[in-house]
Amino acid sequence: MKINRFYILFVFGILPLTGFSQLTLSIEISELKSNEGQVHLELSNEDEKQVAGVSESISDHRCVIHIKDLKPGKYSFKYFHDANGNKELDTSWLGIPKEGFGFSNNPGISFGPPSSEKILFELKESTVIKCIPKYF
What's the whole-model pTM score? Predict the structure, then answer.
């Protein structure tokens, strides 16, 4: 019987197949102003194409979102606290958000959303990212 050397190296853990890894990204959002509504999150890849869209309930002023079956790579996300349940980020007539929002890497916010370079992160292993939303 002929045994494939590649098979032996893989079975005994000598040759890891990282390209086939399925990772989990857990995002913990804390310090939400209320338990009302949900948090809506959009995860995108480095080409800015949406990979996942998730809505999760809030408990004790925090929300934990788990996104499974991700491949290693570069990602970014944005989220908002939809306190009134209308599935939109409500803004004033000036465009200033009335509800909490945030981005991966917790960048500072000035005029408009942060650049994609500021919110891009590399996912190499299953990871937990902690975020605090911005409220105006």
Answer: 0.83
